[in-house]
Inverse folding.
């Protein structure tokens, strides 16, 4: 199966290794992976900040960059959820509406592509650690992703997965929310990290590096004994 990669801005700049690990897993699953170097942003930051017209320019470029019928796979439920759920609203009553509607059917978050499209869950990954899983708001509420990542992690050798309480509660990131409402954001991430620490886990794993970036910053600032890891990095571990 041919797959086009969409690598979000912050993944490209801050977590490129996760993108490479995603390619590693997809190729093991038999996919032919391509990457259009002209790609930039999906337009979500501007849209969420209220700059819809500016966002529309970026989104139009996204539609052009990913023109075609190949599956588009991304290591971010946040970006996938935006393209899938808001492009049709942004391009409503325009010549690009049908293209926006079509691309929403062909873009997938990494784990949902593995479990729902390829229907492959065991990659012979090995990760000897105790971890807890964080449901990102975008994965859970915009992409309806819940059990798939847990099934993938359940087949990782050596990994003990434990659930934290209030697992579906937001981590407090929310893009610009963490900047505009910093005190509230800090209270939310504090609650989330306390719940994760109570499990005795060594790692917090998630589908979204935006959440993990928020959590990691707080954990390091407080010097707490907990690390963050994207699920693609877990699935790519322990094999060549």
């Amino acid at each position: 199966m041919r797959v086009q990669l969409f690598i979000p801005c912050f993944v490209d700049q801050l977590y490129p290794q996760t993108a490479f690990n995603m390619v590693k897993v997809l190729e093991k699953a038999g996919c032919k992976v391509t990457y259009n170097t002209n790609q930039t942003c999906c337009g979500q930051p501007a849209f969420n900040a209220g700059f819809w017209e500016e966002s529309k320019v970026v989104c139009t470029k996204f539609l052009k960059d990913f023109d075609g019928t190949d599956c588009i796979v991304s290591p971010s439920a946040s970006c996938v959820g935006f393209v899938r759920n808001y492009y049709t609203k942004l391009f409503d009553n325009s010549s690009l509406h049908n293209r926006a509607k079509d691309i929403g059917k062909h873009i997938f978050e990494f784990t949902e592509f593995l479990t729902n499209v390829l229907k492959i869950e065991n990659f012979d990954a090995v990760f000897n650690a105790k971890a807890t899983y964080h449901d990102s708001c975008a994965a859970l509420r915009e992409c309806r992703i819940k059990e798939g990542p847990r099934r993938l992690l359940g087949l990782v050798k050596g990994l003990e997965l434990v659930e934290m309480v209030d697992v579906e509660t937001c981590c407090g990131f929310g893009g610009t929310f963490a900047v505009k409402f910093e005190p509230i954001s800090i209270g939310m991430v504090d609650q989330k990290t306390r719940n994760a620490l109570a499990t005795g886990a060594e790692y917090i794993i998630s589908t979204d590096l935006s959440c993990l970036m928020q959590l990691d910053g707080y954990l390091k600032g407080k010097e707490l004994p907990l690390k963050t890891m994207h699920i693609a990095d877990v699935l790519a571990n322990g094999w060549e």
Notes: Residues 2-116 form one domain. The chain has a mean pLDDT of 94. The chain has two domains: 2-116, 123-235. The two ends are 21 Å apart (CA to CA).
